Amino acid sequence: MTPALATDPTVRLRRRLSRGLAAGSIAIVVLLALFGLAASDGGGRNDGPAPAFDLPLIGGGRVTDAALVGRVTVINVWASWCGPCREEAPVLARVYGDVDPARVVFLGVTRNDQPDDSRAFIERFEIAFPSAVGDGAFARAYGVRGVPMTYVIAADGTLIARHFGPISESRLRALIADALARPPAAGPAGA
To answer: How many helices (H) and strands (E) in the chain?
Structure first.
């Protein structure tokens, strides 16, 4: 480019507009992607069988999906280093304290966290429900996109909702109420 063109105000203005349009286009694509995630509750399939899992519990023992069938299950995927997880921890603890444990069970699943950090998080936020150590197989099966993510599974084992990002108390209570309102699973013929 010749020096005269480099100092031409019209050329400079066109360059700035071009850069601004490019940056604006990228921002719009990012916003549409984020709104798409929010609108679809984190994406993925709902109203299908929840994937099976067998995970080690923090503090010892194991938990499987089969052990939770028969009650509404709320699974919250979290990490101690996650700011939004710290925001929603009091919400989860409060709602958990209000549910009937004979009808609703909560399970935390850590993601990419250190065991000592996970235990400190549980203690700090007084999380009374069990937490397990998540693995890659769990993350793939459930479509974990990041943390936090919350899943609600009906008593019959049907995954009915997934929520990406910190969940509000009203949203969590509504999802649990919806799951509790579902008709129970049909038993074996003649039962």
So the answer is: 6, 8
138 half-sphere exposure, CB direction, 13 A CA radius: 22
User: CA 31, CA 28: separation in Å to the nearest integer?
Assistant: 5
Residue 185, pLDDT > 80, answer: no
- What are the sequence ranges of the domains in the chain? 3-39, 48-181
Using a 10 angstrom Cβ sphere, with 0-12 exposed, 13-18 middle and 19 or more buried, the burial of residue 50 is buried
Query: Among 18-27, 42-51, 61-70, 149-158, which is the least confidently predicted range?
Result: 18-27
Nearest to 154 by CA among 136, 135, 129, 176: 176
Class of domain 48-181: alpha beta
The lowest-confidence range among 36-45, 76-85, 120-129, 173-182 is 36-45
Does residue 9 have a cis peptide bond before it, meaning omega lies within 30 degrees of 0? Answer: no
